[in-house]
Amino acid sequence: MAAVTLQDVAVRAGVSQATASRVLNGSSRIPGEGVADRVRTAARELGYVPNAQAQALARASTGLLGLIVHDIADPYFSSIARGVQAAARTARKQVLLASTERDYDIERESVSTFIAHRADAIVLAGSRQSGHLDRDLEAEFGRYQDNGGRVVVIGQPLAFGSAVEPENHSASGELANALVAAGHTQFAIIGGPGSIRTAVDRRNGFVEALGRCGLTPLVEVSGDFTRDGGFSAARRLAAALQLHPDAGGPPTCVFAVTDVMAIGAIAAWRGLGLQVPRDVCIAGFDDIPTLRDHTPSLSTVALPLEQIGARAIELALCSDIDGLRERVAGQVVLRDSTKLP
Amino acid sequence: MAAVTLQDVAVRAGVSQATASRVLNGSSRIPGEGVADRVRTAARELGYVPNAQAQALARASTGLLGLIVHDIADPYFSSIARGVQAAARTARKQVLLASTERDYDIERESVSTFIAHRADAIVLAGSRQSGHLDRDLEAEFGRYQDNGGRVVVIGQPLAFGSAVEPENHSASGELANALVAAGHTQFAIIGGPGSIRTAVDRRNGFVEALGRCGLTPLVEVSGDFTRDGGFSAARRLAAALQLHPDAGGPPTCVFAVTDVMAIGAIAAWRGLGLQVPRDVCIAGFDDIPTLRDHTPSLSTVALPLEQIGARAIELALCSDIDGLRERVAGQVVLRDSTKLP
DNA sequence: CTGAAAGCGCTTACAG
DNA sequence: CTGAAAGCGCTTACAG
């Protein structure tokens, strides 16, 4: 019933536990080849699998990395998770995953549990209320870091830890400029929750760039950071702008702060008989891989999501620099959804 | 530097370590309220976080669940992962995630590592070579189960452990029937890797049902279980069938064994000037959420992916039944991509 | 109800 | 190079 133990291996090989340990786990002290062989053989014959929990306790390092996302089924986060996985593997670490369903209580719990499991580092993906972090959470993170834990945040710098930050503000500014350069003159916005930093930055970057061109959005609506959030916001927008199929005239260009919301918006409009880009244009943000084959193809700001995830792990693992903010550029990609006749 | 220890809490509360342990972790032996309060206060003041590694060692249970998927960025797997997460949370377990990039060496490594971490259960999602499992892997799993570890497989029953199996064969048969009933008379297949059980079952279920209707696929091609696999297979198919835009006549109806491949196929055909469903029809399998807004909307077999993930965890956690095979039905959904004029 | 003590499975100075 | 022993931070019979 009980798993094979290092002691079992040592006995069978006729050596001490210490020696078995040194053979099986690349210690600097290398035992003689004859002994080493006996130990390895014994381990193989017995099917020995080291107990990582015991190792962690003895070594004071678990080799565990905690990743917290809002929703693992959201392609934005699953792409980041893929990058995290890849980087973790090359660093020979394991990843503990938590998907919070955008519930802050669950998030707090997850952080506590990861700390309890003594994860070497915790990566928080998915931004929250700007700057604000739960008091308890903050205290816990503080102690965690004092004990050598590393924290890295994606997209929402905290007062502590390191961060990988997409350049939301400037990139959506560039998107606005590109759209204006393409001939668009009327704009509207589908924003995200006002409490979420990423949503606010993207909206502001876009609107401010428009302003520098002497333009102002005709309407702004907002919704959740989800497909359904985009869908319902788009209906309100259509009403506000009195959008009609085949109304003629230059279509208004809408900026949705995420691709997923943009997709929901297009679906909503289609339900109203409106065609993109003929009746209304739209651009998103993120460049979600699964959406590359969408029709019409979506103008957006491409973010290297996998790289972002991988980079977060790398920051978490190089212990020398703390408090680092690493900025990641986005790339404007104009496709059919903003094409003017 | 070192984290606060149970001993620290005990000292501050003026009790023994045993008592502190009993207060902080719902033991059946409940200490007096006065004492309990002192302990809790001390723990709070010190910011005590129990060391899960030490607890695991002492309790011989880690509260860890291992999930292994082919690719966490693939919506099929991320949906399953979401269900796994949800079920794990209600069971108060943590999930260890591995994304293998469809590399069997990585998969073997992940299994070993999960076993080393003494995960209470391991869920393998994503089918592999039918029936075949690496010899070493099998031996390792055997010992793991002997030691009380549970293994659950999604979509590919092994010789051991439990399984959650989508009814691939019968569901694709129903899809074929529905398509025939809808008036389709000419069929073709885009299959997956011949070594993968899921791909084979879906293909066979479809072809056999066609056979019962007195029909045979005109052509079969195959590719990887990915968007690109579907893309390139679709080009070969177009050549084989000599598909031309606006050729007239009833369009051939293609069955792609996954939605993701179907999307790739549609993109490939669009590049050739072919329109779905006018020039060629297509149905997929899975009903990926992110693809619900695709144009044309995709006929498919809907699988309750999240439920499947959740169910796998439940099976893993109810220790009484082993070797259980739980079948999950798929539901045929006909949409625009197979619509006849 | 409470405590002293053994034990979970490893690692790692410290001696030899 | 190798081993005896302490220690990592908890839990849990076993006494009291």
UniProtKB/TrEMBL annotation, chains A, B:
InterPro entries assigned to the protein according to its UniProt record, in alphabetical order: HTH_LacI, LacI/GalR-like_sensor, Lambda_DNA-bd_dom_sf, Peripla_BP_I
Gene3D superfamilies: 3.40.50.2300, lambda repressor-like DNA-binding domains
Any Pfam family hit: Peripla_BP_3
Keywords: DNA-binding, Transcription, Transcription regulation
Name assigned to this protein: Transcriptional regulator, LacI family
Signal peptide range: none
Residue runs in coiled coils: none
GO terms for MF: DNA-binding transcription factor activity; transcription cis-regulatory region binding
Domain HTH lacI-type, residue spans: 4-59
